[in-house]
Amino acid sequence: MTGIAAASFFSNSCRFGGCGLQFESLAELIVHIEDNHIDTDPRVLEKQEQQQPTYLALSYINRRH
Questions:
Q1: Within a domain: 43
Q2: CA dist 46 to 10, 38, 52, Å?
Q3: In this structure, are residues 37 and 19 in contact, taking their beta carbons and an 8 Å threshold?
Q4: Structural domain count of the chain
Q5: If exposure means fewest CB atoms within 10 Å of the residue's CB, which of 5, 7, 47, 52 is most exposed?
Q6: Distance in angstroms (rounded) separating the CA atoms of residues 58 and 50
């Protein structure tokens, strides 16, 4: 990974759907994404689970186990 790519990877900027908000810490960014961009409706989650995604958000895994 180049320096530019590494710098953008470690920024605390929300890139979810073009949001663009900046956060002081990674923890604040994660909470923002969970609260604003990830659907927690049980019906939606059940439908997503049935689709066998190729990856899962770490925050989702941590909440479920």
A1: yes
A2: 31, 14, 11
A3: yes
A4: 1
A5: 52
A6: 18
Opening angle at CA 55, ends 6 and 51, nearest 5: 150
Quickly tell me which residue has 């923002």 as its tokens.
32
Residue 20 domain boundaries: 13-60
The tokens describing 5, both together, are 């790519």
- For residue range 7-43, what is the model confidence (pLDDT) as tens digits? 455 689 998 888 999 999 999 999 998 888 887 777 8
**pTM of the entire predicted model:** 0.50
38 neighbors 20 (Cβ within 8 angstroms):
no
